[in-house]
Amino acid sequence: MNEHTHILEDGTVVTHTHDDHHDQHGPHGHTHSHAHTKAVLNRMSRLIGHLESIKSMVENGRDCSEVLIQLSAVKSAINGVSKIILKDHMEHCIVDAVRDNDKEAIDQLNKAIDQFMK
User: Fold this and answer.
1) pTM value > 0.70
2) pLDDT tens-digit profile of 18-47?
3) How far apart are CA 15 and CA 5, in angstroms?
4) 10: number of CA atoms within 13 Å, CB side?
5) Which residues contact 104 (CB under 8 A, 6 or more apart)?
6) CA-CA distance, 116 to 68, in Å (whole number)?
7) CATH superfamily of 37-118
8) Beta-strand relationship, 13-18 and 2-7
9) Which residues lie closer than 8 Å to 57 by C-beta, 6 or more apart?
10) In the chain, what are the domain boundaries?
């Protein structure tokens, strides 16, 4: 069994397992988890930098409406990252889950979507 963990944007950790013996990706199981990792990490680094600069704005007493505009930009960026992760997950894990009739993985995706769409 290959264990697979995702961290949702609100910090929820979702872990599920896959059976590797009918995986076509070779000995490393789900190699797809690296498909967008670099893009996701780059975006997260930018997000962290953006949040740091907003924090400085607050510390320096910048105008509240400017701070709110920057925060809404961060919110959009978080949604963008979440969308990449979700699409990647659907293209790979969920395709496998449907093929293997893995109801648990599908239930977990549903829970993740409920969290994400709050």
Assistant:
1) no
2) 544 444 443 334 444 556 788 899 999 999
3) 4
4) 9
5) 16
6) 21
7) Metal-sensitive repressor, helix protomer (1.20.58.1000)
8) antiparallel
9) 66, 67, 70
10) 37-118
